[in-house]
């Protein structure tokens, strides 16, 4: 493909922001009437008008807790609630109001906090002008309950999702829309929420826990969310503001050892996390705890990935997102380090750290093989995003085509080969998998950590081998979790029989 020959518009961001509602009737009417086509003609990026002053956001607020979705059920083991996907307006700073799309009026959306064995019943009411779904990212839910493309909820309609969380499913998850062609817009306008499944016996339950949701926000100078530019569609959308729980560079007090659950809820931004001069121990991945604590100096979270870390130390430090070159195309500005939050650490009473967190067994010897090849084609690009081709095995997504078939319970080895020019984070619906090895520049490296994941990054010219076994019959999808690439075709369908 032709590379770095393209000069497009200005690129950036994903809108996820927790702020108080400040709607006016006129603005609400404007938002209610919006109906953007996911694959229409490209909208010009909202550049700064001549003489306009750059928009800034306040920094330094205390890190707020996430809004929790209230359980309407009084029965033990039952979680029942309602989510409304609807337009609203938030005040991002005094005098600046931003129309967004939210679950129950907050962005990031609410946190669902449940236990293994619970039955979850969620009614989604769609008050958008587009079809939508809820995908329960990483959760082992039945295919018909997973909000896949093809099971959209029409505007003005509702549906109820219901599933029971099996023992062994404890972990850090999230939920977001998945209607093909509209996913990118619905997420960058604010639709995403968080989901924690807790174990019956958690070896780290004695530690204070904080939740850190990373997102980025692309705003025009008037405070409104910018449309996607051609750069956004090509590289994935990144915003000029990188937020934590909806705030720019918030502050946090850390006494002793804390457990941080972290979500990369960005559309495309990679987070190479570092906490200078303080201790950071990884204890969990997408699908829950590791077998044992694993000290790290930095940690890469691709879009869609989650991690759990234990932090401690003494003095002041900033959690940083260090620069990471993921191979963006076009005339893009250089990568740079970004401070995410500022923390003040104090030494407290030492908290016990178990040497074993859980037992993780290898899936076993694969009896079936699959290969997915990621590629892209920009040779016939026009100013229509749909002219870009992001492909798996040489094909763009077709909702009427089944690409792969698997058998329930069969252990498979999937080779994920990236023949494109940029990183692609691979996500598989319906199950967790284990990364077995990586092949890069002629070297094969066994994966250091035996862990459960549902998202893994694949670098250009790298192959990642995963072991996976689907446990429920039905249709699943798999795709790149740079959401613009997903919407433009880097997705396939799997039938589990």
From TrEMBL:
EC number(s) per entry: 1.-.-.-
Signal sequence segment: 1-25
Membrane topology summary: Lipid-anchor
Keyword tags: Metal-binding, Oxidoreductase, Signal
Domain of life assignment: Bacteria
Domain Plastocyanin-like span(s) in chain numbering: 89-201, 379-496
Main location: membrane
Residue ranges that the Swiss-Prot or TrEMBL entry lists as coiled coil: none
Localization (cell): Cell outer membrane
Pfam families per the UniProt record, alphabetical: Cu-oxidase_2 (PF07731), Cu-oxidase_3 (PF07732)
PROSITE patterns in the cross-refs: MULTICOPPER_OXIDASE2
Keyword Cell inner membrane appears in the UniProt entry: no
EC class name: oxidoreductase
GO cellular component, one term: cell outer membrane
One Gene Ontology term of the molecular function aspect: copper ion binding
Protein name: Multicopper oxidase mco
Protein source organism: Amantichitinum ursilacus
């Amino acid at each position: 493909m032709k590379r770095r020959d393209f000069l497009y518009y200005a690129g950036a961001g994903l809108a996820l922001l927790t702020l108080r509602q400040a709607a006016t009737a006129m603005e609400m009417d404007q938002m209610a009437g919006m109906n953007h086509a996911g694959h229409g003609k490209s909208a010009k990026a909202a550049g700064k008008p001549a003489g306009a002053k750059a928009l800034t956001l306040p920094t330094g607020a205390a890190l707020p807790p996430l809004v929790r979705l209230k359980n309407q059920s009084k029965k033990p083991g039952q979680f029942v609630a309602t989510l409304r996907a609807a337009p609203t307006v938030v005040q991002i700073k005094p005098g600046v109001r931003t129309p967004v799309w939210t679950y129950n009026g907050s962005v990031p959306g609410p946190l669902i906090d449940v236990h293994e064995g619970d039955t979850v019943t969620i009614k989604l009411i769609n008050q958008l002008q587009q079809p939508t779904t809820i995908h329960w990212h990483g959760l082992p839910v039945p295919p018909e309950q997973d909000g896949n493309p093809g099971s959209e909820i029409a505007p003005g309609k509702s549906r109820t999702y219901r599933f029971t969380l099996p023992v062994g499913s404890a972990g850090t998850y999230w939920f977001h829309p998945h209607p093909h062609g509209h996913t990118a817009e619905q997420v960058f306008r604010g639709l995403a929420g968080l989901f924690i499944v807790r174990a019956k016996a958690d070896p780290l339950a004695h530690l204070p826990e904080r939740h850190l949701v990373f997102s980025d926000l692309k705003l025009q100078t008037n405070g409104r969310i910018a449309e996607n530019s051609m750069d956004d569609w090509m590289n994935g959308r990144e915003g000029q503001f990188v937020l934590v729980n909806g705030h720019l560079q918030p502050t946090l007090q850390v006494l002793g050892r804390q457990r941080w659950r972290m979500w990369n809820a960005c559309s495309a931004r990679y987070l190479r996390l570092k906490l200078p001069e303080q201790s950071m121990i990884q204890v969990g991945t997408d699908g829950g705890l590791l077998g044992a604590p694993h000290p790290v100096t930095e940690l890469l979270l691709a879009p869609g990935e989650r991690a759990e870390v234990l932090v401690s130390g003494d003095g002041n430090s900033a959690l940083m997102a260090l620069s990471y070159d993921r191979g963006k195309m076009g005339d893009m500005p250089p990568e740079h380090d970004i401070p995410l939050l500022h923390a003040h650490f104090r030494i407290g009473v030492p908290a016990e750290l178990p040497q074993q967190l859980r037992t993780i067994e290898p899936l076993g010897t694969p009896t079936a093989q699959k290969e997915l090849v990621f590629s892209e084609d920009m040779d016939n690009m026009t100013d229509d995003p749909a002219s870009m081709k992001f492909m798996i095995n040489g094909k763009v997504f077709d909702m009427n085509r089944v690409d792969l078939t698997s058998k329930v319970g069969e252990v498979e080895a999937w080779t994920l080969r990236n023949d494109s020019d940029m990183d692609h984070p691979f996500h598989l619906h319906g199950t967790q998998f284990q990364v077995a090895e990586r092949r890069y520049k002629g070297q094969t490296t066994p994966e250091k950590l035996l862990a459960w994941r549902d998202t893994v990054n694949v670098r250009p010219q790298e192959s990642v081998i995963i072991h996976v076994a689907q446990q429920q019959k039905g249709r699943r999808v798999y795709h790149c979790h740079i959401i613009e690439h997903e919407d433009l075709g880097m997705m396939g369908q799997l039938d589990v029989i």
